[in-house]
Amino acid sequence: MTVYSSSRLSAFEKCPRQYKYAYIERLPRKVTVEAFMGTLVHESLRKLYQDLMHARLDSLEEILSYYHDMWEKNWTDDIRIVKEYSAENYRKIGAACISDYYNRYKPFNQSRTLALEKKIKIDLDGYRLHGYIDRLAESAPGCCEIHDYKTSQTLPMREHLLGDRQLALYQIGVEETWDFIEQTDLVWHYLVHGKELRIRHGRMALERLKSDTIALIERLERAVDEDDFPARESELCPWCSYREICPTQKHPAKISKMPSNTYLNDPGVKLVDEYARLMEEKQRYMKKIEDELEQLREVIIAFAEREGLEVIQGSHKRLRVKKTWRVLYPTKKEATRRELDELLKKEGIWMDVSDLNPYALNKALACNQLSRELVEKIKRFQRLEESYKLYLSTHKS
Ligand code: SF4
Question: What's the gap in Å between 235 CA and the centre of ligand 1?
Fold first, then answer.
């Protein structure tokens, strides 16, 4: 049975194709400098609290020297740097995170540490999850705190934390593990910004997160059954370990590494440039023709009205100018629409005059608005037909 984790579920949410590479095909991941620095900061704070649990208060210098030693021992040139900063820049950011944290919380007596890197098991209606809590602490008898260290450059908004799955799941696991816990605070340390962010979830919020997580796992298991893992491009792609094999990124990644004077000879570049040129030409031409036709149409209608004509004779063709009235019915947004639908169904002519909207049905299936059972029943009526769509967008690599 698959054991899930919050990071595993997030990977699927962010990009199903990346999930497949990492968790199904188990392709090796490349370490980024951000992840490397984050791991060492976590490890340094773990050591700080580990020593405190053994009645030793490390000085800031000792912790920083531990951090720098680990950096020296573990750094390799395989670690990827995506942005335009150097490894040294990241090393300094990590050291600053540790110093700021140390100076803010010294002598670290705000709470009693119960566990570090604590493995927590969570059972969600038969689905098994696990995770590791950076620091589990008790601030007062029965008052538990789940601490999480972040070295991300982005400070999240409160709404984001309220919807954060990771610590909420840990809370469920912790409260099921220990009876003495009466209340739990979730505490995020955004170390780059020197901010401590706290949330206390009510029962209802936890129940909602629980059912959302179960729905996500069901979606994931359906994707596994159907081998359906589309690549979902995002601003995170430059950090993805699988750019060189991903169907959306491998060609842009290859081109971005080529010198500007040689990539124009790449067959893919040539094809896209030609396609873009012809599409632009087509759009320019069509726009010109449409504008001319619209102007002419207005002149023709005015001429026909002025002369009282329904037919105008040309040298080879004749043009009929017919005034018509379009009959409109209430749209789905109008209250009377339901009344009309009911009337047609009652009179038995619904099937003769209505039509299935495949776009709306596919959207309902994709958005998980329907039960799994209904989805299966609908899918029995589906037929797949291969087709290609081409979308031009602006260059970004
Ligand atoms: S490069 Fe982007 S789209 Fe491709 S697998 Fe990675 S995250 Fe997904």
Answer: 10
